[in-house]
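Subgroup meeting minutes
Present: P.N., E.W., G.H.
Scribe: E.W.

1. P.N. recapped why we're keeping a running log of single-chain structure predictions: easier to compare across weeks, and new members can see raw inputs and outputs side by side.
2. G.H. added today's entry (290 aa).
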Amino acid sequence: MIPDFPAAALPDTFAMHEGELIALQVRATRALGLPGPHFHDSLPDGTSAPALIVIPAGTFEYGAAAGENAPAQERPRRTALIERSFAMGIYPVTTEEFEAYARATGWQRRTELLWLSGRKPVVNVRQSDARDYCAWLSRQTGQRYRLPTEQEWEYAYRAGAASAYPQGDRIIPAEALYNTRQGFDAARPRRPRLLSRCFVRCGAMEVGKLRPNRWGLHDMPGNVWEYTASPWTRDHASLPERPLPGKPQAVVTKGGSWFDGPEDCRGAARRRRLENELDINLGFRVARDV
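Output recorded in log:
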C-alpha cells in the first residue's frame, strides 16, 4: 500500500485549528473520489451498511498528557503516524444494524442477557462477534471492514485535540453520556460497582443525539465502551499481553460509557476487557479501508 503522504510530510493534526482539520478531511475525501466525507455502502438487499465518514491521514500523540490526571496504563504519551486515510463508523453499530447480520447468518443472542432495540448501540456481543460482523459486511459490500486499532480509534476521537476531551479539558452531559454521579479523580481507587445495578436497566441511549467531534463522529466519548482490534498492553511502552494457552485474549476498549464516570470518556482512557466478554455497556464501531 502507498501511504497518502510520505511519513515526513504527514500533517501534525495537533498543530491545526478547526478549519484546517475540516479542510484536511475534505482534501482526503476528494483524493478518494468521494462526493463528500459522509458516505455508506449498500447491501445486496438494498439497505445501507453503517454510515461512515472519512478520517484523513496525519500524525498525533496518543496517551495522557504530562499534566493530565491519569493512571500509568495511559502513559507514556507517544507520537503515532496514521499513514493512510480510512473511514470510521459515524456511530457505534446499532442493534438494528447488528440484527440484520443476525438474520442473514443465523447468529443468535443469549436470551438471558439484556438486548436493546432500534438505534441504540448493540451490547452484549463479544469482540469475536464484532469481527464476524465486519467480515460479513466485507462479503456483502466487497469492501474491507474491520475493527479500528487503538491508535486509529484515539486519532479519530481527538480530531486534532491535544486536550483530554474533543472540546477541551472538561466535558458536560451535552457532549457525552456518562455517569454524572461519578467524580473525576483518576488518582483515587475506584469504588466497587455492584453488578446488581447493571441488571436493573441499561442506560445506553440512541446514537447520534449529542454533539459530534470536529470530524463528525458521534458518541466517541461515553454511551458504550467500544472494542478495538488491539491486544491489551499494560502501558504504551509495553508489548501486548499474551493470553495463557486456551485462554481468551485481553483487548483494548475505548470511550467510556453511561455506567462510568467522566474520566473514562477522555481520549487517553482505555480499559482491559476480554475478547469473549459480554456486558451491557460494551459495544463497537466499524472501520473501513478506503
